[in-house]
Amino acid sequence: MAFTEDFTEYLNTSDFAVTATWAGGGSAVGIFDLAYSEDLNVAGNLPLFATSASSTSSLSVGTSITIAAQSYTVAEKKPDGTGMTILVLQIGATEE
Q1: CATH of domain 18-91
Q2: Is the entire prediction scored with pTM above 0.90?
Q3: For residue 54, which of 86, 22, 20, 85 has the smallest C-alpha distance?
């Protein structure tokens, strides 16, 4: 029997979750984090979006998405094996 999890309570926009949208009418509810990042002694922010894997199954790396009126580009998709996917984002949208 395959393990399945219901993320509805966790991904609740009444609490911490927000909605991301992208071209073609796609959208997903997830947790947005503008995490601190440091690489080669250069500090900055690394935007991340955690959402259900099923809601982003058709989303490709390079796609422009909007979260809270800010445009981002999907740099990486990292499924975590539990039914969630972490989208690593870059600030600013690319031309599609």
Answers
A1: 2.40.10
A2: no
A3: 85
